[in-house]
TrEMBL record:
Designated name of the protein: Integrase
Signal peptide: none
Keywords: DNA recombination
SUPFAM superfamilies on file: DNA breaking-rejoining enzymes
Alphabetical GO biological process terms: DNA integration; DNA recombination
One term of GO molecular function: DNA binding
Top-level lineage group: Bacteria
């Protein structure tokens, strides 16, 4: 009963916040109220305070979680509502749900064919994305774990990457700024290090600023390169996000083949891919 009362209070708080925005229509006000109610519930569940203590970091963490549950239109509306309350712009995050619905896994042989039709730096990015299950923008954020450790505010299983040998550990910044560990085959890591920049360069991708330490493809430019090369070599493309499908499916096969039960394997793969819940990863297995 206490939980219900708490949520009603949170919903009222969100409604009051939306009314203070002087919105142009009743429908927009209602949509904003719904967006802020969801945010408030997230803040409560994560024990992050309330709307009055909302920060840019907390807001983007929420949007990153939402990006795996809703389409782009709803996600953009949530972002606009939160920006109005927060009084500052937030990162434009792409809906992963839409990418999942539109994509499917490539085979390793198909990925090799696509990479062979790309420039050297885009081909290397393709092999890295396939090997580590990276999002397009995460390629721009690669750093050795010795230079930038992963975030520790989320608990991780100790048996992540089970079955992968002769690897080098890196970190990437995922959605909502979450910094997590990823691994690369040492031979692939050696090729990456050959393309290390003497001075990091600033890259803008989808209006977001990244500091890139390697001369490899990434972001929308790499994604477009992958799709174009796929169409040239295979006659079709399901987009670069299909590489994350492949990673999820291949890792599930590896882990279950090593004796893990389905739910255990799913949890491990979810953490490796930077998802917030295993059921999001499950969609990649279709």
């Amino acid at each position: 009963m206490a939980k219900k009362t708490s949520f009603r209070s949170a919903a009222k708080q969100a409604a009051l916040a939306s009314q203070s925005l002087k919105l142009s229509s009743v429908r927009t006000e209602k949509n904003y109220e719904q967006a802020l109610t969801g945010l408030t519930q997230f803040i409560q569940e994560q024990k992050l305070g309330d709307l009055r203590s909302l920060t840019k970091e907390k807001a983007e963490r929420y949007l990153a979680m939402r990006s795996q549950e809703v389409g782009q239109k709803t996600l953009d509306l949530d972002r606009q509502a939160i920006q109005a309350v927060l009084g500052q712009n937030l990162e434009v995050i792409k809906s992963e749900k839409e990418q999942v619905l539109k994509s499917r896994a490539y085979t390793h042989a198909q990925v090799t064919m696509v990479a062979n039709a790309q420039s050297e730096k885009n081909a290397l990015a393709t092999h890295i994305a396939e090997s580590a299950g990276l999002r397009a923008h995460e390629l721009l954020t690669l750093r050795p774990v010795t230079e930038r450790p992963a975030d520790t505010h989320r608990p991780y299983r100790d048996d992540r990457f089970t079955g992968r040998q002769h690897v080098a550990v890196y970190t990437v910044e995922g959605k909502g700024g979450l910094c997590r560990e990823v691994i690369l085959d040492k031979a692939l890591a050696a090729k990456l290090e050959e393309r290390r920049l003497d001075t990091p360069r600033t890259v803008f991708d989808r209006e977001v600023r990244y500091e890139s330490h390697y001369d490899i493809g990434g972001g929308q430019k790499w994604s477009n390169s992958f799709s174009a090369a796929s169409k040239r070599t295979l006659g079709w493309s399901t987009g670069a996000h299909g590489l994350r499908h492949q990673y999820a499916q291949s890792r599930m096969n590896e882990l279950q083949g090593s004796g893990y039960e389905y739910r255990q394997a799913l949890t491990i793969v979810s953490e490796e891919m930077g998802h917030f819940r295993p059921d999001i990863t499950e969609v990649y297995l279709r």
